[in-house]
Amino acid sequence: MGHFEVMATSGLARRSVLGLGAHSVELPAFMPVGTAAAVKSLTASEVREAGFELVLSNTYHLMLRPGVDTVQKAGGIARFMAWDGPVLTDSGGYQVFSLARRCKVTEQGVTFRSHIDGSALELTPESAYEVQRRMGTDVAMVLDVCPPGDAAPREIVDACERTTRWLDRALRARTQGGPLVFGICQGGTDLGLRADHLASVASRPVDGVALGGLSVGEDIERTWEVVARVAPDMPALRPRYLMGMGRPQDILHAVSCGVDLFDCVMPTRSARHGQAFTSRGTVSVKLARFKDDSGPLDPGCGCPVCRTYEMRYIRHLFVSGELLCARLLTLHNLTFYASLMTAIREAIQKDELAALVRSRLSLLGGTLEGGGDLA
């Protein structure tokens, strides 16, 4: 079983610790996404050295390749990927949204058509839990229904009701000594539905509660309103997880509302597109202005990339299509995120979070010329 304790607060924000077996995770925390048991372009030790204690992987993708048996025989997902730390696995529920054309949802569960070879794959609330248990995950997310941002009201109500029924089935299937189980609150941007579904999920014996079904096509201002209204009412004695949202400004906003845990592909995907998060805003390394720039990517960063490489070299790697560019930018971006989370935890400890949020948002509000919007 896990252990969760709030150590300090600053406004609604909490500094806490989540115990997972032999490991402890300091919260608020960001989880790098390792969908297929790998954070793209980095080794597990590089992810650890960048400052992370918990990573996320995906049940659906690992079931397809390499398969549950392979992961289990390897000693579990952490050992399989040579990661010295705990792992949270998504249930595959998000794929109900992202792979909507390839799946059929019934009361029993979800039947997918593999994006690899077209073969049928069924996930039920019970099997999603069992797969995660067999893979040795530390935190298992329940199978849920994630409606799109433009879903009709009836569809959102149905998603909430089915997610609750599936949660009950998953909880009945859990076994002693298995992973922690987090429930997921749906409801779209309807604040009334969100409140009702949160009450249903929180009333169950879950080890944590997540806000799902956000950043799926709805307006970002509405997303922030939902987080601001719902997060403070999430159970105070359990971890609060905002799924799939990870712009730095989103994290700052959500932490201020009481959220503890985040994941997003943003830092790794942005790196592969030549975009870096820096103390000066978002930088697009392909710009011609950097062709002869002998300075570091970010003068305010002490990561191995900024200590070692000049901006003109990184730009050269990107325009030349060299894989090293993606590796370097991924390492830098993840270090930026880890440093942001450390600063947030320290500010909460000192009860100075509001000042940190104001100063960071003043830098993150804009981008350097050509940087673009990463949303």
Description:
The chain is α/β, with parallel strands linked by helices. It is built from 15 helices and 16 strands. The strands form 4 sheets. An 8-stranded parallel sheet has the order 4-14-13-12-11-10-6-5. Strands 1-2-3 form a 3-stranded antiparallel sheet. A 3-stranded antiparallel sheet has the order 7-8-9. Helix 6 crosses helix 7 and helix 13 crosses helix 14 (323-349). The two termini are 36 Å apart. Mean pLDDT is 93; it is low at 366-375.
Strand arrangement within the widest β-sheet reads: 4-14-13-12-11-10-6-5
Instruction: Please state roughly what percent of the residues sit in beta strands, choosing from under 5%, 5-15%, 15-25%, 25-35%, 35-45% or over 45%.
Output: 15-25%
- What is the number of helices? 15
Specify the helix fraction band. 40-55%
- Dominant shape: globular
Structural class: alpha/beta
How would you state the average pLDDT, rounded?
93
Rounded to an integer, what's the Rg over CA atoms?
20 Å
Query: Strand tally, please?
Result: 16
Task: Note poorly predicted spans.
Answer: 366-375
The biggest beta sheet is recorded as: 8 strands, parallel
Q: How would you summarize the topology of this molecule?
A:
Elements: E1 3-10, E2 13-20, E3 23-27, E4 29-31, H1 44-50, E5 55-58, H2 59-64, H3 68-73, H4 77-80, E6 87-90, H5 94-98, E7 103-105, E8 110-113, E9 120-123, H6 125-134, E10 139-141, H7 153-173, E11 180-185, H8 191-202, E12 208-211, H9 220-230, E13 240-242, H10 248-256, E14 261-263, H11 266-272, E15 275-278, E16 281-284, H12 304-308, H13 311-319, H14 323-349, H15 353-364
Parallel strand pairs: 4-14, 5-6, 6-10, 10-11, 11-12, 12-13, 13-14
Antiparallel strand pairs: 1-2, 2-3, 7-8, 8-9, 15-16
